[in-house]
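Weekly modeling sync, notes
Attendees: AB, CL, MP (scribe)

Item 1: holo prediction request
CL wants a bound-state model with shikimate-3-phosphate before deciding which constructs to order. AB pointed out that an apo prediction alone won't tell us much about the pocket. Agreed to run with the ligand included and paste results into these notes for async review.

Input as submitted:
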Amino acid sequence: MSRPLVSRRPATLAGTARVPGDKSISHRALMFGALAVGESRIEGLLEGDDVLRTAAAMHALGAEVERLDDGAWRLWGRGVGGLREPADVLDLGNSGTGARLMMGLVATHPFTTVFTGDASLRSRPMKRVSEPLSRMGARFVGREGGRLPMAVVGAQSPMPLVYELPVASAQVKSAILLAGLNTPGETTVIEREPTRDHTELMLRGFGAQVEVEAAEGGGRAVTVAGFPELTGRRVVVPADPSSAAFPAVAALLVPGSEVRLSGVGMNPLRTGLYQTLREMGADIHFDAMRDECGEPVADLLVRASALRGVDVPAARAPSMIDEYPILAVAAAFAMGTTRMFGLSELRVKESDRFAAVMNGLLACGVKAEAEGDTLVVHGTGAPPPGGATIAVNLDHRIAMSFLVMGMAAAEPVAVDDAEAIDTSFPGFVDLMNGLGGAISDIVAD
Ligand code: S3P
């Protein structure tokens, strides 16, 4: 059943909130805990559908996985190479991260795993992982175009690989590094543009040998040594900067607002949005910068601000790849033109986000155009008309972005189905309304 929602202009937004745990880090904590010897404890795990499916999959692959309390989980791992063949198909729901990283994990285990997902995940390209993992000895049988459902026949005798990423993707990088754990010798991924490095940081924390060097010809080479002894540990998951983006931009756009967001992950490979918003004139402060389990964390203080259009260089895309929909909404309220370069990857996210953002903006009366892989948004400095219903197409970030649009546009904005929000941000509506927002269900008459 679909869940249509509508958002309207509140008076102001005010107060303190903590958004749920980081999605990327939550997936990895479960996977690495399942590979480590002994007990791991996770605090602040994102309990959204994507991550819960990874938890179920790690259980199906042989790890003990137990929920102790809200966000508190305990794992008892199998040791590197110790995963066992799952008795059934692994359904990763909406999660590209879950599917791609796990394909890497099982690619170097000598058994067969079948992956599937929802209509969105089944439409997403998997060749980007199956191609390099095939070179390590795994075999893949999938649908036309390398799509799920797909069976992975793990390598009996895995071979190490040196691989240069053809697209800037932390998922592909991570899939190969994870396959490299159960492979003799050293496996190296070369990335010309740095992508989020949670895999490298957390694997090291679990005891793996991970070297990062400058690559010949630019970028960096990440090398993992095979057969490390991973040991269970405690992981504290920071609040997700990609989720914090929604209340942060809402606070910037709703006049008179002042919102504090606590414990937000500030890994520099994730903070491109905040850098861009500050260049647009946003009043955002990072307080109490600290380190939590190897990841930088801060409290964000966001005050309503008049924004101006800027150019966002393509090189920044990997550090804010999930934030373009909400940046485009912010750009619609800015004075002047915002050009976002190098957005080809947006076409293969949970939906074709490039098209979804363009169509949504146009429906809300915003002037926007596509120039190849560049998205151009023309703001007037005044709230756009709004007054549209946006098709979500199983994409959580499209739903949340346009609900934020409705919080500051002249007329309310509706989304046809907000169900997908639970994949990454359970409690989104309550959190926004707790700050003063006015998001409500549309009840059919
Ligand atoms: C992620 C990497 C990014 C991002 C996704 C999470 C990860 O995907 O869009 O939400 O956790 O590694 P790509 O690797 O496809 O860029």
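Recorded for review: The mean pLDDT is 98.
Action items: CL to compare against the apo run; MP to circulate these notes.
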